[in-house]
From TrEMBL:
Coiled coil: none annotated. This is L-rhamnose isomerase. The keyword Transmembrane helix does not apply. InterPro entries: L-rhamnose_isomerase (IPR050337), Rhamnose_iso-rel (IPR013457), Xyl_isomerase-like_sf (IPR036237). The lineage of its organism: Bacteria, Bacillati, Actinomycetota, Actinomycetes, Streptosporangiales. It comes from the Bacteria.
Amino acid sequence: MRDDIRAVLRGQRIETPSWAYGNSGTRFKVFAQQGVPRDPYEKLADAAQVHAFTGVAPAVALHIPWDRVDDYAGLARYAAGLGVEIGAINSNVFQDDDYRLGSVTNPDPAVRRKALGHLLECVDIMDATGSATLKLWFSDGTNYPGQDDIRARQDRLAEALAAVYARLGDGQRLLLEYKLFEPAFYLTDVPDWGTAYAHCLKLGDKARVVVDTGHHAPGTNIEFIVAFLLREGRLGGFDFNSRFYADDDLMVGAADPFQLFRIMYEVVRGGGLGPHVAFMLDQCHNIEPKIAGQIRSVMNVQEATAKALLVDVGALAAAQAAGDVLGANAVLMDAYDTDVRPLLAEVRAEMGLDPDPMAAYARSGYFEKIRADRVGGTQAGWGA
Ligand code: PSV
Ligand code: MN
Ligand code: MN
């Protein structure tokens, strides 16, 4: 197997979310699990396990205020001591009563000021932790036609984004996330990549779009969006997860591994495998064990990446140029149909890791230890 592919796989970097380690659920029920973290420090410790067994998950995204601490610089030092670092800072302007009619698009200027204050606080936390990325997802929208003025809400959104953008320091950037619907059902203020892209273009080069794979209508060609944004230099990253019906937040690559491969092929094709694109997981493990669920997810992304790297680009280009429809499709499918698990096992061995992260984690006894040590773990924030 080519050395350059192995090198890329060794250097891959996948960020796990702090909220994946705490209890989560649906609006019907949060199922408490044993051994879940009681505070942000324990979430980092769990994330460090995912990195220890995969070697490619060195960063952990925080969610504020779910991960609020007194000393953020201390939290970053604690992370470093565990062998991980703080990744994206995720804002939360969707869980206060004040945000019933929206946050930065709320018709009430006082609520807008409060929301903006939180977003700016998140940049302070980036300064303290050394995080380079602010990830913004807004639940803002309306439930009924006529409820509020669509254009005015866009103006308010643009105003808030501009204020946040102006606060970003050198080396910091803002990722704007879109979502088709939910919790608003009639209108969502950032419903699609086009809206996010347009706002980012206005803001400047430090503003990029983040693609959450669960945030599209069924059948959406997500790889087209990825190809387009990469081509325009505006793909900031991914929130990876799987969906069957809505924003299911299931393990990435579980529902549709072929889609994940197609996305990763466009990433490779567009030169997106690098630090300028953040590969984040945005998942909740409602019924499955959390650390193992994250390890499995990281492995799923690795497998899709390996297959994407295996595409014979020369043969593909030749078939495409010749108008050989079946030949071109066969080149892509050959890569997808390759069993890359032996290759990844070898790559892990080269990194000094166990070739089977799931088994190695199970053998480690970490879960038994946290189950005994931690009593009364907290919810991730969802379903609270
Ligand atoms: C809500 O849909 C959501 O899943 C968004 O995707 C955010 O990225 C995430 O929550 C964390 O706020
Ligand atoms: Mn997301
Ligand atoms: Mn989501």
